[in-house]
TrEMBL record:
Gene3D superfamilies: Metal-dependent hydrolases. The lineage of its organism: Bacteria, Bacillati, Bacillota, Bacilli, Bacillales. GO terms for biological process: proteolysis. This is Diguanylate cyclase. Transmembrane segments: none annotated. One of its GO terms (molecular function) is metallodipeptidase activity.
């Protein structure tokens, strides 16, 4: 079984309403592909493209929530909406779980009521920024590199109270450390190792150790230029290098996968869609025990759900 902590298929379904989640040819993640790969839980991010005007972003977020329930959950009896460990444990053998997440708080502006609304609609994890600054914090590509704002601290406090994941992927380093200081349930849903590939979106060893010490989670993603500095040459072996490094830092129980499928155009050789997860699984079994592979693929993220 596989628990994938991040994909952007909702964005693609929003951009092209003619696409079918079952087998859309231009989608990395499809229901038929998930079934073939053995994906048991897939996180679906609400990501608002930068081109959407600020005043329309919350409306677009709600449109993506509607797409999630109408075209993913209600359209297919085998797909069940899940948010907690109990929901996942209740899935039947033939059923898969779909989890709703938020990638970047741009959709809520500086309005906690909008965030509360998304939480009530079932959002299980909240990424505070995309790559740029917003009312919550600075993103990884903002040169200023500021941390959480006063409003951002209110957001983290609300997520603590609601028992939801606080996702540090895309944050500036200062904001990361502010979150580590106050978040009860921090994760990096789709981030890799900076020491192996020095990209601003990747985590330093100190950040990885801090997440491990907070008993958080790190989802290794499949973005080629987050895996290797060699242009367009990312291989499955590069994914394993990042996994090995996090394990060497003590993160064997704190690492999984967050593919970033449908949020990327370039893909890892041999790992171009969710269907090809089997190739990664086969490589994992060559290097790790059955128990370890089970935890990397599913158990670790499942165990770290706040409730």
């Amino acid at each position: 079984m596989i628990f994938d902590a991040h994909c952007d298929v909702l964005m693609k379904l929003w951009q092209d309403r003619s696409l079918s989640f079952y087998d859309g040819a231009s989608l990395h993640v499809t229901l038929s592909g998930m079934a073939e790969a053995g994906v048991k839980v897939q996180c679906f991010a609400i990501y608002i493209p930068e081109t959407v005007p600020e005043e329309a972003r919350f409306t677009v977020a709600l449109e993506m929530v509607d797409i999630f329930f109408t075209h993913v959950i209600e359209a297919f009896p085998s797909v069940k909406f899940v948010r907690t460990r109990r929901d996942i444990a209740a899935l039947k053998k033939e059923e898969v779980g779909a989890m709703l997440t938020l990638e970047g708080c741009d959709a809520i502006g500086a309005n906690l009521v909008k965030l509360k609304t998304l939480l009530r609609l079932g959002v299980a994890s909240v990424g505070l920024t995309w790559n740029f600054p917003n009312a919550v914090a600075d993103g990884a590509w903002e040169k200023r590199g500021a941390g959480l704002t006063a409003f951002g601290r209110q957001v983290v406090a609300l997520l603590n109270e609601a028992k939801r994941w606080v996702d540090v992927s895309h944050l500036s380093e200062k904001a990361f450390w502010d979150v580590i200081e106050m978040a009860r349930f921090p994760i990096a849903s789709h981030s890799n190792v900076h020491r192996l590939c020095p990209h601003p979106r990747n985590l330093t060893d100190e950040q990885i150790k801090a997440l491990i010490e907070k008993d958080g989670m790190i989802g290794i993603n499949f973005v080629p230029y987050f895996l290797t500095a060699k242009k367009n040459e990312a291989m499955i072996a590069d994914v394993l290098r990042h996994l090995d490094h996090i394990c060497a830092l003590g993160g064997e129980n704190n690492v999984g996968f967050g593919s970033d499928f449908d949020g990327i155009t370039e893909t890892v050789a041999g790992l171009g869609t969710v269907r090809e997860y089997a190739r990664l699984v086969n490589e994992l079994y060559k290097h790790y025990s059955t128990e370890q592979v089970s935890r990397f693929l599913f158990g670790n993220f499942y165990a770290h759900l706040p409730e």
